[in-house]
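Work Package 3 (structural annotation) set out to generate three-dimensional models for the target panel prioritized at the project kickoff. During this period the team completed the workflow that converts sequence records into discrete structure tokens, so that structures can be stored uniformly alongside our sequence database. As a representative example, we reproduce one entry of 222 residues exactly as it appears in the project archive.
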Amino acid sequence: RRVAADWGEGASDAPLREGNGAAAAVNDATWRHRFFSGVFWSTMGGQYSGTTSGSAVVGGIGSYTWGSTSQMVADVQGWLDSPATNFGWIMIGGEAATATVKRFSSREAIDPAERPTLTIRLTTCECVVADECDDDTVCTFDACGGGFCGNTPMPYGDVNGDGAVDIFDILCVLDGFAGNFDTCALVNLDLTPCPAGDGVIDIFDILAVLDGFAGEQGCCGP
């Protein structure tokens, strides 16, 4: 389950198979403490989510995998969005029965192959056209190349992305107004309303390119 509060790692190191434990050292996490000896869990045993992120049946000595779940994905996404909330997961055994204790290698295991590993597989959708690369700002030139999106800052009105606002940009927006997007993509012609556009090429987009041609920066200026 996802841990809900920060916790420490001190210098304690139990001997041999570690079943007898060792005296807590400064900053160790214990059953009572988040940081030994002065910071306590709000509930003894740890503060963690009431929702199970994943489960596995653990038997004899070997390697075990906790398969992906929607909650596990949500946990990782939450940590990505807010790294300060990443306190890891806590493994909870079958404590309703006796003799269920298990020992797992940690990140400090001598053999790297025994250390816990979080594997993330990211599936991306390749773009085909520039309109799939809209980043909701008219201040970048949106392009699709090799299946990947690129969003490059551009001068306001530079709808063809050549680094300058000139007659070719004016011709491009006029083509777009007529429904022709062969030269310039709709996503780059759609300059108004600033900063995200409205999905329509109209007289206001033509005026925006003319403003850019005159040196105006619209909402993209300093």
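The chain has four helices and four strands.
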